[in-house]
Amino acid sequence: MADIRPYRPSDRDDIYEICVKTGKSGTDATGWLDSDDLLPDIYALPYVDLEPDFAFVVDVDGRARGYILGVPDTAAFATELRRTWLPGFEAKYPVTHEDTPTQHFVADGRDPDRLLIPELAEYPAHLHIDLLPELQGQGLGRMLVRTLIGRLATRGVPGVWLEYGADNVSAAAFYRRLGFLPLPSSTKGTLVGLRTDATV
Ligand SMILES: CC(C)(COP(=O)(O)OP(=O)(O)OC[C@H]1O[C@@H](n2cnc3c(N)ncnc32)[C@H](O)[C@@H]1OP(=O)(O)O)[C@@H](O)C(=O)NCCC(=O)NCCS
């Protein structure tokens, strides 16, 4: 039986695992990069450490098997990332100037300003969502989005954005179905936004 509940610190290792197992355009990224820690260190662990009140998990028998991780104020999060997270990240992941997937992600992780998109006035929040394969396609992604935008709306946050890779066609279909709209400032990946008063 799968339930959605708020994140708790004891979920942190499960969050790491989910991030790695879904990190390569929705598929298993284990062994893909120089360190399996890299994707969670950018896209998951700073979120649960800095904004635990906006993290929700799909709980199966006490284990987190899916998550949605949000931050209500992306600009403030970028500032906090720079202050508290970046020093450790930079020490752990040196720049080598090689043209490799690892170095692409290292560059992203070292650049919190990448999060400062022009649409932040309308969509101040952003999110990441991932479910292990056995939980996909059962309506849980929709329920996670509904849960997060409900929490954001009660805090007065009007909208949330996210970015997905061009090759993640499955995620693209999911976001379109839920009513996320493409944002004009999309560059490498695709940026989409959703108002928190939307019905999903
Ligand atoms: C993308 C993801 C979060 C979607 O969650 P999910 O639980 O599988 O999706 P749901 O079952 O809630 O689907 C909600 C709606 O989207 C539709 N949808 C979901 N995936 C779809 C797909 N690949 N193609 C077409 N429609 C899709 C569903 O049909 C459903 O519509 P309906 O309610 O009208 O029937 C999940 O599949 C996942 O974690 N994938 C791997 C990791 C990933 O890619 N994360 C996103 C990175 S940007």
What does this structure look like?
It is a single chain. The protein contains 7 helices and 7 strands, in the order βαααββααβαβαββ. It is of the alpha+beta class and 200 residues long. The chain has a 7-stranded mixed beta sheet, with helices on both faces. Helix 6 (140-154) links the parallel strand 4 (125-131) and strand 5 (159-164). The radius of gyration is 16 Å and the shape is globular. The relative contact order is 0.15. The chain binds coenzyme A. Coenzyme A binds next to strand 4, helix 6 and helix 7.
Q: Notable features of this structure?
A:
200 residues; alpha+beta; Aminopeptidase; seven-stranded mixed beta sheet; 7 helices; 20% strand; binds coenzyme A
What are the SSEs and their pairings?
Blueprint: E1 2-6, H1 12-21, H2 38-43, H3 45-50, E2 55-60, E3 63-71, H4 74-92, H5 101-109, E4 125-131, H6 140-154, E5 159-164, H7 169-178, E6 181-182, E7 190-195
Parallel strand pairs: 4-5
Antiparallel strand pairs: 1-2, 2-3, 3-4, 5-7, 6-7
The structure holds coenzyme A (COA).
- The CATH architecture name reads 3-Layer(aba) Sandwich
Structural class: alpha+beta
Question: Helix count, per DSSP?
Answer: 7
Structure summary, number of beta strands: 7
Q: State the helical fraction.
A: 25-40%
**What is the count of structural domains?**
1
Terminal CA distance: 22 Å
Radius of gyration: 16 Å
